[in-house]
Amino acid sequence: MILDELLKEITITDRVNHLPSISINAIHFNSKKIGPGDLFVAIKGFAADGHRYIQQAIDKGAVAVIGEQPPADLDIPYYQTPDSRKALAHLASQYFGHPYQNHVMIGITGTNGKTTTAYLLKHMIEKAGKTCSLIGTVHNIVNNEKIVSKNTTPDPLELQALLAESRDEVVIMEVSSHGIEQQRVEGILFDYALFTNLGHDHLDYHESLEEYFNVKSKLFKQMKNNGAAVIASHNEWGRKLIQQVEASGHDVSSFGTNNHDDLKLVNVCTEYFPVIKMKHELNEYIFQLPLPGLHNVWNTIGALLTISKMKLPLETVIASLDKFPGVPGRFETYSHSFGATFIVDYAHTKDAIEYCYQTAKRENAERIIHILGFRGNRDVTKRREIVDLCSSECDHLILTFDDLNEVPAEEMIGELERLKEDNAKDNVIIITDRTKAIEHAWKEAKDGDWVFVTGKGQETYKQRFQLPTSNDKETIQFLQQEQLVLPN
């Protein structure tokens, strides 16, 4: 693509060596990926400043550079812009031909439930006869092919390439607060924006819950003129967002338990797989959910309200729910030789963990055993609150390692010991090796026990543990195969 065609999408405050007709082969913000004829965008990141690698990019063949710093003495064109991240997103969109315009775009944001809601929506849309891509945490699925997902919301270059590759009618995106704040979705307008909930999370990155909410709410400023918002009204942040979006003049639909909600939850029969009664417009629907837990009631009706806004047949979609295959790493259930129930779930917030416990109690669990880890270099402000909740609600709590993320093991051990000591409960133990923690629970579990292994879901371990497994699911399957059940 000609450089001038790319530059018309961004703000330029200064330039040197302008060559408008130069041809650009590719765009990169990682200097290691630069090849001859490429454009390098220098971004000041959290770990490194891309401006330090401008010369390296030139040496590797970059023919033009865009950055935030004033122009230096370079032999190739340099363009200064106020915001390199924003510029990268718009450049990527222009380079790939604004591919979002070729799809019905659905963005889902919230602390919990994004992934499950996305998978539910994909299933529903496809059962209604449309093709659908999904971009999110577990996998990116495009043209019915699975692609490894590195982040919930990919960087702008990867994201725009996926949108351009997709031949599907609809694209569902999980949109994280990091993705919004780092402007990965800048330049994309959504047909539908869905808000699930908001709770204590990511306060290592955001200064407060209010700031976290403000970032999430930016997604609803990226709707098309005729776009529609679908917002949960059963939490205070959802109600606040409804007021904001209504004030902007956009179409807003809500789901909750109030008479004024567009989709009202009338009743829930709290079986393992809940049976719900809901009302939409003049119709009432009664059906069984394919997933356990009250949180999945909200995920399901949020997806169904979005389906109704898309003018797809609710009856057809509801009838298809019994064929829903589930979500990898979300409340995956495994059997135990003595009759215990093992659950692998991604839950890593207080709300999500409470939902797990509620389900176990409704199923009359004899005991609740929980294997809980925290990630290094992540939100430390929620740790004590979560440990206090878990030790109060479950019978045995095993603190273990999640991803260390370059935090020294000794430092994380010290953190776990402080959490245990401050908690002052005698039902808390520490087993740092995650696989051995699961093995310990496996050996201790009895008939009627519910054992939760939370925090990672389907994700691969980032460090080595003693058992020859790469994730929580494999660890449990290894224990099943080895029959490491010892009599109590």
From TrEMBL:
Catalytic class of the enzyme: ligase
Alphabetized InterPro entries for the sequence: Folylpolyglutamate_synth_CS, Mur-like_cat_sf, Mur_ligase_C, Mur_ligase_C_dom_sf, Mur_ligase_cen, Mur_ligase_N, MurE/MurF_N, UDP-N-AcMur-Glu-dNH2Pim_ligase
Residues of the Mur ligase C-terminal domain: 329-457
GO molecular function list: UDP-N-acetylmuramoylalanyl-D-glutamate-2,6-diaminopimelate ligase activity
Limits of the Mur ligase central domain: 108-305
Pathway: Cell wall biogenesis; peptidoglycan biosynthesis
Family the UniProt entry places it in: Belongs to the MurCDEF family. MurE subfamily.
Subcellular location: Cytoplasm
Transmembrane segment boundaries: none
EC number in record: 6.3.2.13
Keyword annotations: ATP-binding, Cell cycle, Cell division, Cell shape, Cell wall biogenesis/degradation, Cytoplasm, Ligase, Nucleotide-binding, Peptidoglycan synthesis
Keyword Oxidoreductase: no
Protein name, entry field: UDP-N-acetylmuramoyl-L-alanyl-D-glutamate--2, 6-diaminopimelate ligase
Domain Mur ligase N-terminal catalytic: 24-94
Keyword Cell cycle on entry: yes
